[in-house]
Design a protein that fits this description.
- The structure is a single chain.
- The chain has 2 domains: 12-75, no CATH class; 88-190, fold of a uncharacterized protein from magnetospirillum magneticum (Orthogonal Bundle).
- It contains 11 helices and no strands.
- It has helices at residues 12-22, 28-37, 46-60, 65-73, 76-90, 92-107, 115-128, 130-133, 137-153, 172-180, 184-190.
- Helix 1 packs across helix 4 (65-73), helix 4 runs antiparallel to helix 5 (76-90) and helix 5 (76-90) crosses helix 6 (92-107).
- The mean pLDDT is 93.
Length: 194
């Protein structure tokens, strides 16, 4: 089970910039020029730009150019959901968390998402996935922090200290894309609030 979301949350503006760049079909030199020299991500350092660009690219490459175009050109709510779909495809553990534990919290009508929910989910996952059993406490905390940050950016959690659960409806354009491309597992994760 891949738990590869320790380095960044949704990084929406950066992912939109990378989507626009990928739609130009850049060669390695054009990619380097855009990310490292032109600083299209508007990052504070070259290392941050390279890191965010690589994360965004790996996430985007889990889906088709059709979704890249949505991310590059759509209004923010649609772009955010498209980016979330890519992040979930790239990070199956986060998708599984949404499909199972987060969906359970919505069904229970829990008012907030407590840390214990993630800890319990992670412990259960570690029983079935040896690579997770070896993850340090610090990395587990970072995974939880980024998972909750992603859920907040995507609107599932309120931007308050309590992390109140909010209901999110998958937008028709994103629902249609995921259905047409056989991404039911991602759609079911994003539909966790219903």
């Amino acid at each position: 089970m891949l738990a590869n979301f320790t380095k960044a949350s949704l990084i929406v503006p950066e992912t939109q910039a990378v989507a626009r760049l990928l739609l130009e079909y850049p060669d390695a030199e054009r990619w380097r020029q855009a990310i490292e020299v032109d600083n299209v991500l508007q990052a504070k350092t070259v290392n941050t730009a390279k890191s965010y660009a690589n994360i965004a690219r790996m996430r985007l490459e889990t889906m088709t150019e059709e979704l890249w175009d949505v991310i590059a050109n759509a209004e923010r709510p649609t772009a955010v959901q498209a980016i979330l779909a890519c992040a979930l495809k790239f990070s199956p553990m986060l998708a599984e968390f949404m499909r199972t534990s987060l969906a359970d919290e919505y069904r229970r009508m829990s008012p907030v998402l407590e840390d214990r929910v993630w800890r319990s989910f992670f412990a259960d996952m570690a029983l079935n996935h040896r690579n997770l059993a070896e993850v340090s406490e610090g990395t587990q905390a970072k995974l939880r922090q980024n998972a909750y940050r992603i859920l907040t950016e995507a609107g599932y959690l309120a931007k308050n200290k309590a992390r109140s659960l909010q209901h999110v409806r998958v937008l028709p354009e994103i629902r249609g894309y995921l259905t047409n491309y056989g991404q039911q597992d991602i759609l079911s994760a994003m539909d966790c609030a219903h």
